[in-house]
Amino acid sequence: MALPFTVSGEETRVFFGEDGQIKIKSEQVKREKIAAGFLSKTEKLHLIQRITVQNLRKTAVSIDVSDRLPVSQNSKIEVTNVSLLPAPAKKETNGLLSWTLSLAPQEKKEITLEYTIEYPKDARITGL
């Protein structure tokens, strides 16, 4: 990897690879199909995802975490009941979410994404 040219005193960022002292785990906590009513024309899928970030260093760190909520391209499919804890620092229309977390030495923090996908009974949903 070539380092970028910089003027003396100028700040630059360089990526040196994975930091083994910062642990990030993403897991699906719940995936539950909610039974539709007898006359209902839609089905629902309730999902909960947890991201755990842990600082194993002896010094504090600040870390940016990004994830994405599904965004429907079909008017018959809706993403509802969205709960994001903690609230993201940034939420874009394409579903991209961003958090900036400050972690003390040995501290662990969690981000929880919870949402429901509502879709027609005859539809086939992929990518979840």
Based on the model shown, name its key terms.
0% helix; elongated; 52% strand; four-stranded antiparallel sheet; 128 residues
What would you say this structure looks like, in words?
The chain has 128 residues and is mainly beta. The protein has a domain at 40-120. Helix content is 0%, strand content 52%. The chain has strands at residues 22-34, 42-55, 61-68, 78-85, 90-91, 96-103, 108-120. Strands 1-2-7-4 form a four-stranded antiparallel beta sheet, with no helix packed on it. A three-stranded antiparallel beta sheet has the order 3-6-5, with no helix packed on it. It is elongated.
- Cα-atom Rg, whole angstroms? 20 Å
**What is the topology, as strand order, of the major beta sheet?**
1-2-7-4
What is the total tally of β strands?
7
Residue ranges: pLDDT <50 for 5 or more in a row? Answer: none
Strand portion, in percent? over 45%
The structural class is mainly beta
The end-to-end span amounts to 36 Å
In round numbers, the mean pLDDT is 87
With helices defined by DSSP (H or I, 4 residues minimum), what is the helix count? 0
Topology order in helix (H) and strand (E) letters: EEEEEEE
Proportion of residues in helical segments? under 10%
Biggest beta sheet summary: 4 strands, antiparallel
Shape field:
elongated
